Amino acid sequence: MTNRDLSQAVWRKSTRSSGQDNCVEVAGNLPAIVAVRDSKDPAGSALTFPHAVWGAFTGQVKSGEYDAKLEAAPRRAPRPGGSPRKESPRVKERHPAADQFR
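Structure (tokenized):
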């Protein structure tokens, strides 16, 4: 994606984020694109997607299409000669914030 002017972006976070730090902000008010950024770094770069692509992605998240893929993901092997990696918790259900973005 090319560097776009995001000065008119109206950023929003899911109402279900409840002040957590691990959130993304979405700006859907821009012509032709949806912008997504890390809420911890609002001055940092943002990813941009055509509206149709963002809509398809969020539709797949809402439908649970990625849930089985996350559960089926192989676990990583321990590091050679080092301490074992901390296992991240597996996603058992859709994230509640998935319903907030369209």
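The chain has two helices and three strands. The CA atoms of residues 56 and 76 lie 30 Å apart.
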